[in-house]
Write a structure and sequence with these properties.
Number of helices: 15
Mean pLDDT: 91
Shape: globular
Structural class: alpha/beta
Strand order of the largest sheet: 2-4-5-6-8-9-10-11
Bound molecules: iron/sulfur cluster
Distance between the termini: 27 Å
Number of domains: 1
Order of helices and strands: EHHHHHEEHEHEHEHEHHEHEHEHEHE
CATH topology: TIM Barrel
Low-confidence stretches: 1-13
Largest sheet: 8 strands, parallel, barrel
Radius of gyration: 20 Å
Strand content: 5-15%
CATH architecture: Alpha-Beta Barrel
């Protein structure tokens, strides 16, 4: 078991003033033009980008294009080399802790959707204590709190739960409904280190089709959530698109624009990218544009070549076979032994409470061995709460 402590960041110099939200930037981008640009890339373009340093968005377009598929072995080798140079041989492990499956939204792809007739559960204080104890026993020091999006799991709920959770973990991430700047600041004061908020898709029409009811149907409010997280000076901002809702290449290029915008505005923050692919869930599934395993590898490598500093996360949504093979290519963190139902660690809760099916169900001890078999080191702890300001 290894501990690797990252240097603390100082937010002095990161402005808290609103300097333009991403919704202002995105209005100057065009979905069709971007898609056409991706399709027009050639092998010659790919060769040129593969020898470049300091890649721009145009280079990212080249790397996610169909033309780059033929260069996958080179991309993997370069991505792996850059990852080891920047992050060493560590792989951070974390686990999600689902606090609630109640939700006031209707998303076509999610088992927690409001109209889905599943049993709803929001953990109380003693449930949370049991979950914390179970996760500590497994060795985790970084947990990701996950909830549906409803007023039941708003700031007042977290004010009760975080003091139960934070004494046991050094790094706390949250994947919750988008909040206001002062709410993120309040959570930061309670020990929050990172917030993950995925736009799902940057195509407004597709977004409207899949986010049918509830607050999440407000495209721009979600789009500007990472700006608000940056303004609240949260240490890390996690981004992603739900791969499969629309064309993954075009969505990823929009995400690259989003990342660059945030890096300019909130340059003291760290950033991570996740790669959720739509998984089967209660209530059915709609996949608009499938991304194959090979294409996902291409996408991960494109991100690493585009940005050597961004953290890349590998989900337990992926199969054990896929995770075994792609683990060393560019990822810096991965979840293990995840339970996607509230109360899932302390008890064998019913599968009907789950948000989606986990594909890699191996125990964390097996994942630790897998990481070591790739010549990498398991990082349980990469932060100390003494650094929290
Ligand atoms: S994706 Fe999120 S907001 Fe949508 S139904 Fe699921 S939990 Fe609710």
């Amino acid at each position: 078991m290894s501990n690797s402590i990252a240097a603390p960041l100082n937010f002095i110099g990161q402005s808290t003033a609103v300097q333009g939200q991403f919704s202002d930037v995105v209005s100057s981008l065009n979905w069709q033009t971007t898609a056409a640009s991706i399709d027009s890339q050639t092998a010659e373009d790919v060769r040129r980008v593969l020898v470049k340093k300091n890649l721009q968005i145009d280079d990212f377009i080249t790397l996610v294009s169909p033309a780059a598929q033929a260069f996958l072995p080179e991309m993997v080798a370069k991505s792996q080399q850059l990852t080891r140079q920047r992050f060493g041989f560590g792989m951070s492990l974390f686990a999600p802790l689902y606090l609630s499956n109640t939700c006031a939204n209707e998303c076509s792809y999610c088992g927690f959707s409001m109209s889905n007739p599943i049993k709803r559960l929001t953990l109380n204080e003693s449930d949370v204590e049991n979950e914390v104890r179970a996760l500590k026993t497994k060795g985790f020091d970084h947990i990701l709190l996950v909830t549906g999006e409803t007023s039941k799991v708003s700031l007042s709920y977290f004010k009760k739960m975080l003091p139960i959770i934070t004494p046991s973990f050094n790094y706390l991430s949250m994947e919750i409904q988008p909040l206001e700047v002062d709410e993120y600041s309040a959570l930061r004061g309670l020990g929050l280190n990172a917030v993950l908020v995925y736009q799902e898709t940057y195509n407004k029409t597709t977004y409207a089709k899949h986010h049918i009811k509830g607050k999440k149907s407000d495209f721009n409010y979600r789009l500007d959530a990472p700006d608000r997280i940056g303004q609240a000076q949260v240490h890390k901002i996690g981004l992603g698109v739900l791969l499969g809702l629309d064309d993954w290449r075009t969505d990823s290029v929009f995400l690259a624009h989003h990342l660059r915008h945030l890096q300019k505005q909130y340059w003291r923050s760290r950033f991570s990218i996740s790669f959720p692919r739509i998984r089967p869930c209660e209530g059915g599934i709609e996949v608009g544009s499938e991304i194959t395993d090979k294409q996902l590898v291409q996408l991960v490598c494109a991100w690493r070549l585009f940005d050597a500093d961004v953290e890349l996360s590998l989900s337990t949504r992926e199969s054990a076979h896929f995770r075994d093979h792609v683990l060393p290519i560019g990822f810096t963190s991965m979840s293990a032994e995840s339970k996607t139902q509230p109360g899932g660690y302390a008890e064998d809760a019913q599968s009907a409470l789950k948000q989606f099916e986990i594909s890699d169900e191996r125990q964390v001890s097996d994942i630790a061995k897998l990481i070591q078999s790739h010549g990498l080191e398991v990082i349980w702890k990469d932060w100390d709460k003494a650094y929290n300001s």
